[in-house]
Amino acid sequence: IHSVDNEQPHGLSTIVSGFKGRVTRQINRMPQPEGISLWQRSFYDHVIRTDADLDRIREYIANNPARWMDDRFHT
After folding, report:
1. What pLDDT is attached to residue 4?
2. Residues with Cβ < 8 Å from 22, sequence gap 6 or more?
3. How far apart are alpha carbons 27 and 21 in whole angstroms?
4. pLDDT at position 56
5. Which residues contact 48 (CB under 8 A, 6 or more apart)?
6. Separation CA 54–CA 56 (nearest Å)
7. How many CB atoms sit inside 10 A of residue 16's CB?
């Protein structure tokens, strides 16, 4: 993705990082318990190339919350 006025192009990582930074600053202004992490360390991006790929991703998104208790990162 390119911005205007001869600025550097912004890739997905730059956009996600900027979003997370702005959200984190807003959340940090609110009272909250210390030691709570807001974000995962990284993210997974994937180019959706086929309808089957899109269907698989939609199914994952719809069913993933039900599997949270079994997730190895759930504490």
Report:
1. 54
2. none
3. 10
4. 93
5. 54, 57
6. 5
7. 14
Report d(CA 59, CA 48) in Å as an integer. Answer: 14
Considering the entire predicted model, what is its pTM?
Answer: 0.43
Average pLDDT per block of 10 residues along the chain, 75 residues long: 58 85 85 70 80 94 85 71
d(CA 43, CA 19) in angstroms, rounded, equals 13
The span from the CA of 20 to the CA of 37, in Å, is 12
Structure tokens at 70: 């079994």
Per-residue pLDDT at 27 = 82
Enter the tokens of residue 61. Answer: 């998104």
Find, among 50, 39, 47, the residue nearest to 12 by Cα.
47
